[in-house]
Write a structure and sequence with these properties.
This protein has 19 helices and 17 strands. The protein is of the alpha/beta class. Helix 17 crosses helix 19. The chain is globular and about 75 Å long. 35% of the residues are buried.
Length: 559
Amino acid sequence: MSTLALVSALKDHSEDFEFYPTTDEMLSAVRKDIQAILSDPFSDKYPIFSALDVGAGDGRALMRLTDGDRYAIEKSLMLVERQDRSIVTVGTDLFAQVLLDLRCDVIFSNPPYSHFGAWSEKIVREANAKLIYLIIPVRWQNDKSLQSAIESRKAETEVLAQFSFDTPDADRRARTVVDVVRIRLDKHSHNRGRSYRSNELRVDPFDLWFEQHFAPQSTVADCSNLDPKATIEARAKKRISTGRELITSRGLVQALSDFYQNDLSDLVGDYERICGLDPVLLGELGVSTEALAKGLKLKIEGLKHVYWRELFENFRPVTSRLATKTRQRVMDKLQASMSIDFTPDNVHALCAWLIKNCNQYFDDQLIELVERMTKKANVINYKSNVKTFAEEGWRYGRTPEIERYKLDHRIILECWKALDYGYFGDQSPTLDSTVADLLNDLMTVANNLGFETRHEAPAARRAWEAGQKVLFHFTDRKTGQRAVAFEAKAHKKGTLHLKVNQRLMCRLNVEFGRLKGWVRNAHEAAEEMDIPVAQAQGAFNTNLRLGQESLLPRPDHGS
């Protein structure tokens, strides 16, 4: 869809929040500056860094600026849906979002110009990043609130370039002249012409926020042993445990969000009342701004973590369907999101990201699993594939380029080590972790193909002896009967032998062929793989797909 068509669609859905895509020239100016500041002085490679785009649109700027972790705040759901799956949406409304705990290296924003001042001021005051890049009208230098925010952060500003949106290369033209402004918040120094940077910010954004919202005190107290985080976590957990009926009746998201807002309101109210006391009295009691700020910061952090963890527990039916490495990647992303505000909009944005990514991961991990088991002894060509491969094509762990194939239901894999007998070789054998991951991933993919394996013990928890078969079962979802999904034999020399249920292998092969684009329908699968059409029809397009209803209902559905 062209940008003009996209803008028209946004207008039709009342979601055009001044979407003016950043031009390539503007992004090039930002990229060049980032490389000069963040790159390794001994390398000419473009640096990998985390970035947050506030008002990210369809995510094109993030994709151009970094290969590192990408985070976005975007109000238009149509644009969020168009973002690459590597982008994590951490909020939908900047002014309903607190940026203090969103730690990243760079914040980028091309804000709506009708209120760029308030937008930019909030970013500058709350940014927990080394660098901010703003694409803003040239009149920004006359905005007193923005200048005050820059001064409060003791930041350095520099105009990198000046551009106009009224040029042929602009995807959406407007008669607006803008500056590409870099705002630097980190401590750094120069020595012999080279810039040295620090991870430490000149002014902590939380300290600035605390000073603005609470009465300043001049006394200093020792707060090294202060640990209020555990206290607030315990209080929040108690609220959740005693409010199960409300969670059931009002919906998980709304109930948890209400609990969080109530806890946060009570917490801030307590500190406001403390700071309202006589400063002399507080000084006599040894209470200081430093101690209060640290206490409040830890408590807010603990509060967010409690509620996000409670929500993540409800993600298990989805995350349990991910393969080992994929699941860890997703959980790391979710853990990184625990610092954002716990609001219904943020929850649903994170759920949308999870669904979008997991559907792609389900397909990717099936392909990866089959390719891990693709060895010469295991491969059967499609009928239309008459190409054969010489023995040397498979040497040294290589896999030749094969056109259209399926796997035999009997698999032989040469592993570096299948069983571990301990350092001295005198212990009872345990399964090597790499082999265990492969077997667990086979169970996970089988489950996604309709073979219920979620209640089966993981591979590493089973008893293993060299050459002895170990059975992995599934439960038929229609009859409730258990049957063998596959059997595995691990040998002392490092070989792993698998015998896979033929119905499971049929589904695995058909879906592998579909996802690779080798077969377009069940009839083609039946012809190429020499299987009955009915069997191919029962296997085609069976890999798991999640819908929006899979996790949580939308806010307008009474969640």
